[in-house]
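Input record (one chain):
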Amino acid sequence: MNDISVNSTNLIPKNNINSKPSYLVVLEEMAEVSGKSKMVVKHFITLERPDTEAAYVKMKGFYTESTEEDAINNYQEQLTTVPKEAIIELMVPWGKVHKIRSLVFKAK
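The corresponding structure, as predicted from the sequence alone:
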């Protein structure tokens, strides 16, 4: 008898799977710009799901200078290139959180 070899071609390589989903957190805060108070928007990419408490959101990740759309489209590249020193843990009051968006979820 001859042996038959069957290869799986539709499997995703294990090293491409992130076991913890990433989120984009859009933060709004007042900042002093040219002597005037101004609302500033900052983007924060989390390394895992943020912990949501009654008064604050606790998250681990990094700030990105990218626009919201660029952060959504290129977050995987940013995750692999961010320096370890840039990763921080934050506790932010809900009043500063504008929105939290999953970067992993894709509607069919």
